[in-house]
Design goal:
Shape: globular
Structural class: alpha/beta
Strand content: 25-35%
Number of strands: 12
Order of helices and strands: EHHEEEHEEEEHEHEEEH
């Protein structure tokens, strides 16, 4: 199940990313802002728990999100600006990281790094800017489910219809919040029009 918020500000920010003349700093900052909007949409129905705070008038009973039940997992390295945006807001959440790389010849993904702990009792917010073939995200979801995640929410900036369809067919219970669904994949499995390589553009690697 995916949610695609059609908001002018969100659309404008995504189109800023398409501009290849912007600096890596602007690229990372724009990803950060898009992620904040997606996180806001994703947390609309998140449960709250009673909590006691010491206010200026003494103890006060309030309700808030229990961030200790949230794990933020990013797919290295392109998702790091998204990861920062989420943990800047959910400051008491725990983090995990997955290194998943796509073979440019076979277009198959493979795991080369796993720094994700036990997910039992956790809602996992999975961040990855691009859904092309859907292979990397499917691999990440499979790992998180095996680690016991109670619920998985995926935040993504751009997806191809093909990749999004594969994920929804294989994992219909995953909640996906996507900023933009692009036209298609080309013969090399790149998203059209896409952004280029998000990791390279974010960190100015060659």
């Amino acid at each position: 199940m995916h949610t695609h918020p059609e908001h002018p500000l969100l659309q404008s920010l995504v189109n800023t990313l398409r501009d290849i003349t912007i600096s890596p700093l602007t690229f990372r900052h724009t990803i950060h802002e898009i992620t904040k909007i997606l996180l806001y949409e994703a947390m609309r129905t998140f449960p709250m728990k009673p909590y006691t705070v010491m206010s200026w008038r003494g103890e006060q009973n309030v309700q808030r999100i229990d961030e200790s039940e949230i794990m933020v997992v990013s797919v290295l390295r392109a998702a790091l600006p998204m990861h920062d945006a989420v943990i800047d807001t959910l400051t008491y959440s725990v983090s995990g990281f997955l290194g998943i790389k796509r073979d440019e010849i076979t277009h198959k993904s493979h795991l080369y790094y796993d720094r994700v702990g036990d997910c039992s009792g956790k809602t996992v917010i999975l961040v990855d800017p691009m859904i092309a073939t859907g292979g990397s995200l499917c691999d990440a979801i499979e790992i998180l489910e095996k680690k016991g995640a109670d619920k998985i929410i995926s935040l993504n900036i751009i997806a191809s219809p093909e990749g999004l369809g594969i994920i929804e067919e294989r994992y219909p219970n995953i909640e996906i919040f996507i900023a933009q669904i692009d036209e298609r994949l080309d013969e090399n499995k790149f998203i059209i029009p896409g952004l280029g390589d998000a990791g390279d553009r974010a960190f100015n690697t060659l």
